[in-house]
Every structure is written in structure tokens, then in C-alpha cells.
Amino acid sequence: MNKLGSVILSTALLALPVRGLAAYQAGDVKDGGSISGTVKFKGSAPAPKKLDVSKDKEVCDKTPKTDPTLIVNNGNLVNAVITITDIQKGKKIETKKITLDQKGCEYHPHVLAFPAGSTVEILNPDGILHNIHSYSKVNSPFNQAQPKFKKTLEVKIDKPEVIEVKCDVHGWMHGWLVATENPYFAVTDNSGSFKLTDVPAGTVTDSVPTNFSCLNSIFCFCTSKLRNVVM
Q: Residue 69's closest CA among 218, 191, 188?
């Protein structure tokens, strides 16, 4: 993958896939703080690339589609995953059922983050065949056809991992499932902003602007060492 540019993150956090940590201890957090910021794209963002909708056009080509891999809005990076790394205790992890929609032959959201152990409900409201295919390495990969009569299917993601998903029927459909090891994660919104809440005191000890080099909208790598940042 080509380097697309650099971003600036306003706290000592990192938009990066999670890594192995010590066992996380969940409990009540008293007088916890919050961490918020904006991920900024530095440099000229490439123009959105129009996707070639070559199949099931009567359903999939109702509206123009652009590649969601890199979305920069007013200089801010959308869909970057933010997580606190090396945190060993904090608020409770709440696994739950979350939804990945395939409406209009696109994955909504493009990046879906959740705690490991959660169940992903995959929706097919399009009335055509989809086939979701995961490229998991830690979790068991899945490759499931979803005909028009099968409106929902469910998969459980047991272990922390960043998982690429594609549709084997519609080649332009592409997204990410991000299963985290702790509950301190966020995906930047359409303004490039994020907020983490109930953070135990003393978790983040550095809060100065930091430069990152990015390969795409999810995976960013820090260019200088800060405490609580994975290199």
C-alpha cells in the first residue's frame, strides 16, 4: 500500500489495529475522565475515486458510489479507529449485538468497531444475493452466501482482531470489522472527531500533538515515541 500522507492526533492515542495485552481487569471507574480529539489529514487528499458498479445495477447503482477507503472531510480523517493501548484495567466491557448493513451494495458502516466477544448481525435488505467473506487470521474466517430471502445472518467475533470483509458477488464492496481487547475505542465521525469516556485517572500521561504516517484510513503509525502509544 502506498503512503497516503500524515495525520495529526491531538492526544496520546493511536489509530492502529489492537495488539496483544495483559489480561484486562474490568470494574467500576470512579471520577473517570474523557479524552477527545480530531484526527487531521496533513497534505493534499486524493480525489474520491468513483466505484465501477458492474453487477445488479438496478439495485446497486441507484446512487453514485465512491471508494470509502480514505475519506477526508475539511482536512479531517473519517473512519479512523482510535484505541487506548496497554490499559490493564478500567470500565466494564459490554459485548452486544451490533449491525453491519449491506443496503445499496455497500457496507454501513465502512468501519465497525466493537469489543471482542460481540455478535455481528449482517443485514441484506437489497433483495439480491450477497456473499460476505472475512479475511480473518486470528478468528475463524467466514464465507457465507446471503440470498435475498435471508435478510439477516449472525457471526460472533471472539478474539481481538482487525478483519477485512468483502463481498464475493460485488467486488467493490469492502469494509472492516475491528474487535478490540478493551472498551476504550472509537471510530472518528464525519468531522474526524472522537471521544472516549470513563477513562481511569493516570491512563494517559502525555497529551501533546503527534505526527503519524498513514497507509490508509484505519492503520496509522506514530513517527515518535509517546507513552501509551503502540509503535
A: 218
Residue 116: its pLDDT value, please?
Answer: 95
Q: CA torsion 113→140→108→127, rounded to 10°?
A: -160
Joined together, the cell numbers standing for residue 212 give 503519524
- What type of residue is 162? V
Residue 204 in 3-state DSSP?
coil
* Homologous superfamily of domain range 94-181: Cupredoxins -  blue copper proteins (2.60.40.420)
What is the model's pTM? 0.82
Q: Which one, of 149, 215, 216, 186, lies nearest residue 11 by Cα?
A: 186
Longest dimension (CA), the chain: 54
In this prediction, residue 106 carries a pLDDT of 97
**Measuring CA to CA, which residue among 43, 1, 2, 5 is closest to residue 223?**
5
Amino acid 223: pLDDT:
34
Q: How many angstroms separate the CA atoms of 59 and 148, rounded?
A: 12
- What does the domain layout of the chain look like in residue ranges? 1-91+186-231, 94-181
What burial letters (b/e) apply to 121-130, b meaning 16+ CB within 10 Å?
ebbbebebbb
Residues of the chain under the 50 pLDDT cut? 1-21, 205-217, 219-231
Judge contact between 143 and 165, C-beta under 8 A: no
d(CA 16, CA 205): 19
Q: What is the pLDDT of residue 95?
A: 93
